[in-house]
Write a structure and sequence with these properties.
It is a single chain. The chain is an all-alpha fold. It is about 70% helix and about 0% strand. About 5% of the residues have low confidence.
Length: about 475
């Protein structure tokens, strides 16, 4: 024991005798430390975005009926598996590899940091390429998770797997290349800081195409064609899911700075948070005026819609504009979700309203509110918005990006799903849908005890 204390004392005296500066020649330089700091920051942001899948699991499972909860929750893990492998194999190359204005042509079968020369579009940051890959892969997984919501409660699992692979391999990466990989929209100066268009509109467009082709769930509309409310089985799950997603968004938006240095990171965190708060309140007020009662799911969707909208604008707009963007997104998403449902669209988690409509508004909002000083100080792309006497140029670029993205994703998604519909079929049978996808697709229920009691009760009712 005395020996250990003696060694410790000697070590302390050695450090005092030889200052830290004496080791500097062989230690890391300031540049190395900054690279390490930025890389660690980005890796932590990746973890937050990756963990957003837990939020999607809780939100979507809570929003569907008990007999489909296990299936829907399990699909989030499947989403991560598909996105991870497909983005590694091909997607990262199509999205961020060197190429032309439409897609990348280098960097397939991603080989690590040593292949940095194949990804010149990512040279703006000194963060190691491996961590950049992980960060971008997590974004691709979020976009695919949105598609999952549009297919809820009636799509075959095999269809989701096939479509998920093609979406992660080509559809999402091509849109990412257009805006973030040096593609044609980047050259025009489109502003989409963290993905209102690239991530959310892309996923929502594929989701709404799937929703239309799958047709409504059994019992969703009565004989007169009016929508019937099919409540989710656990509202507490949906609340927890939204809180997890809200926290994860601090990796999504502020994390896109790829560095904690400078003012961009803090500014983005601020605009993200206050926009979400405004969106939740706006949707709650809108539901109160519409239903005569405050609707919790509406408030939750309002928060998510505001987060989607501010995602593209968070670095470009002042805090007061962020509140307006969030408020409009929350209220407008509630109204459009009601209108689309009355029009015959059965979107179980309102994926298109929350991620599509809000994504469009988020993209257009920078064309209105982008502040000159933020564009200049942050060395960001594009020009000031219309409300800063920036003219219609930036608004036009944003609108073109929205139209181009929606058209590309809608056409490819329709072709893929329509071919599957005509060949293998994309929807489970009526019997399987009535049983629930937990038992028909996986052979067991997410809530086995409760579902057994329900089955026994139904059996007794039929006998009497």
């Amino acid at each position: 024991m005395k020996k250990k204390w003696l060694v410790l004392v000697l070590a302390m005296f050695t450090l005092m005798a030889y200052p830290v500066s004496a080791f500097a020649a062989e230690g890391p330089t300031n540049k190395d430390l900054l690279i390490g700091l930025d890389t660690t920051f980005t890796f932590l942001a990746f973890i937050l975005v990756f963990f957003m899948q837990a939020g999607f699991a809780m939100l979507e499972a809570g929003s569907v009926r008990m007999k489909n909860a296990g299936h829907v929750a399990g699909k989030t893990v499947l989403t991560l598996a598909i996105a991870s492998l497909c983005f590694w194999a091909v997607g990262f190359g199509f999205g961020f590899g060197n190429g032309n204005g439409f897609f990348g042509t280098t960097g397939f079968l991603y080989g690590g940091d040593s292949t940095a020369a194949s990804f010149l579009s990512l040279e703006f940051s000194d963060v190691t390429l491996n961590v950049k890959f992980l960060f971008q892969m997590a974004f691709a997984a979020v976009s695919l998770a949105i598609v999952s919501g549009g297919m809820a409660e009636r799509a075959k699992l095999s269809v989701y797997i096939i479509f998920g692979i093609l979406f992660s391999v080509f559809i999402y990466p091509v849109v990412a290349h257009w805006v973030w990989g040096g593609g044609w929209l980047a050259e025009l100066g489109m502003q989409d800081y963290a993905g209102s268009t690239v991530v959310h509109l892309t996923g929502a467009t594929a989701a709404v195409v799937a929703t239309i082709l799958l047709k409504p769930r059994l019992g969703k509309f009565n004989k007169e064609g009016k929508p019937v409310i099919i409540p989710g089985h656990n509202q507490v799950f949906t609340v927890l899911g939204v809180i997890i997603l809200w926290v994860g968004w601090f990796g999504f938006n502020p994390g896109s700075a790829l560095s904690p240095m400078g003012g961009t990171f803090g500014h983005v965190a601020l605009t993200t948070n206050i926009a979400a708060a405004a969106g939740g309140l706006a949707a709650l007020i809108a539901s109160w005026l519409y239903f005569g009662k405050s609707d919790i799911p509406a408030m939750l969707n309002g928060v998510l819609a505001a987060l989607v909208a501010i995602t593209g604008a968070c670095a470009f707009v002042e805090p007061w504009a962020a509140i307006i963007i969030g408020f409009v997104a929350g209220a407008f998403t509630f109204m459009t979700s009601q209108w689309l449902e009355r029009a015959g669209l059965d979107d179980p988690i309102y994926a298109f309203s929350v991620h599509g409509i809000a994504g469009i508004w988020g993209a257009l909002s920078t064309g209105l509110f982008a502040a000159p000083k933020l564009i200049e100080s942050g060395a960001l792309v594009g020009k000031p918005g219309l409300f800063y006497d920036g003219g219609l140029h930036q608004l036009g670029v944003q609108a073109l990006g929205v139209v181009g993205t929606f058209a590309f994703v809608a056409v490819l998604s329709f072709l893929i799903l329509y071919v599957m519909k005509m060949t293998i079929g994309i929807r489970v049978t009526e019997e399987e849908e009535l049983m629930g996808l937990d038992i028909s697709e996986h052979g067991t229920y997410g809530y086995p005890e409760q579902m057994k009691l329900i089955a026994e009760s139904e059996s007794k009712t039929l006998k009497h």
